[in-house]
Amino acid sequence: MVFGKRNNALGEKTSNRNMSVRQTALSFGFILGMAVLFSQLSNPTAQYYLSYRINADSNELLGTYAMRLEQLPGLLTTLSQEFEFDCSPADQAQLDTIVYRNFVIKRMSLRPNHGGECSSYQSAQVDSQLMPLLNQLSPDVSLWVANDAEQGTLLAAKWQGAQGQLTVHLEPLVSESLKNKYCQDCVLSVLTSVNNPTVAYWRGDIGLLGEEPLFRTTILDGLQVNAFIRPQLLAAYQADLWLPLFILGAIMAALSLSLYRVYKRRSISLHALVERGLARQEFIPYYQPIVDVSTNSLYGCEMLARWMRPGQGVVPPMEFIPYVEKSGQILPITEQLIEKAVGEMSKLNWQMTKQVISINVVPDQLESLEIMEKSLALLAHSEIMPEQIAFEVTERKQFTNLTMASDVIEQLRSRGIDVKLDDAGTGYGGFSYIQQLNIRSLKIDKMFVDNIGTKDLKLSLLDSIIAFGREAGMEMIAEGVETEEQSRYLAAQGVYLQQGYYFGKPMTFKDFAFFCKGITSSPREDKLATCLA
Fold first, then answer.
1. Domain ranges, ordered by start, for the chain
2. Who's near 23: CB < 8 A, 6+ residues apart?
3. How many CB atoms lie within 10 A of CB 436?
4. Would the pTM of this model clear 0.90, i.e. be above it?
5. Would you give the distance in Å from CA 184 to the centre of its chain?
6. What does pLDDT average to over the chain?
7. Contacts of 507 (CB under 8 A, 6+ apart)
8. SS3 (DSSP) at 69
9. Which CATH number fits domain 280-532: 2.40.10.170, 3.20.20.450, 3.30.70.100, 3.40.50.800?
10. CB-based contacts of 252: which residues, under 8 Å, 6+ apart?
């Protein structure tokens, strides 16, 4: 027997060790896979980085040389005022002086209206070589391309006035700087026009036109810049980025695994804590009053789940309700709460009144008659009448079987138990649930009530919900009422059943019993005032 136990223990340890090895291998495979996947992004990342860098360098160079195309009309207009347009020695001297002093300008020429031509570069027959790029950069200025047999092309701006024509050929400073910035003749910049697609200004290795452009950028109206690069340049950047991206992928995968394990541990831990809480009866009902402001009386209350952990106090509902709704643990929690609530309410002689206790359920509960029968069995042991019970189904979780839910709701209604639509207008089904499930009561969510007194669009939605409920003859309860202004606005719209901090917070049974005692001992006209206290 001892030997058998040792064998079992050894087998269990071996199994655990094998599982651990398998999990380690899977984790390593996931990390390696993510690292390889990220490294595959080196090509598009290199393209994006180069595109961004060339764009940034272009803008920086343009700023440095103060040669933006949009500035040309102003520059040429200013320069034209320096000439008499007669090609006199004075004009010739001015041409030479301006070109000498301005490093942005390569050469200039004048063509007076009365005939003749003069240039800062006498041997250049520049005007005969011009091709139109942009016909109208401004009313007086157009943009041209001049052929340069040695270097490619030059940009030329032409000003036309009453005295004649001024042509300015620009130094290719930006393009020249870019083409050799990263390696010899690595970048080719091509400026094209929509109106004249066969004309292009380019600087660099014209052979790069056979490559796919790295990027296209539209500048001004009708002008487009295409940037071409050598494949070797892209390959170099890709090689530089491969290892950092590989490492980044591995880090991201490791971080994702860590977060997933933390989440799983927390889920497992929370699941176990909830199970222990159920075993120790730690889930208790709180009660929030619902007031009928038309009669200043207590309509009933909503039972709310609270988790009272020993030594830690009350756990906020949002820390466990969403999880237990997904895990299915909300079902035994609801049963535990109902069992406690019916016992406590019987002590208040609740059955001697017509007041209603609303119990929150999820769609899963209303889609199973068996589950609802277990809840109803708990109610059968109390003296509370079925008409005093209402189930509130929230829209936070979607119904999966509306036909079954409709049948269960009809059976509940046949026993006198009402079903209300909670958080109306905020979840999956909206008002389609009202029609498909034949629901006759709805609760207006706090989100809409909060907008009373504001100009928020949701205020009109609130009015629409109320109008819908009123037309359909439905019972309406407004949740989250916190101010007198909200209460009066709702009452004026015919919503008399109200719930919220303005009347009372969710409270333990002891506090709720004291609350109810205060109401019943007050004169009728002061009941609402007592609720407010």
1. 2-39+236-266, 68-229, 280-532
2. none
3. 14
4. no
5. 45
6. 83
7. 286, 287, 288, 515
8. helix
9. 3.20.20.450
10. 34, 38
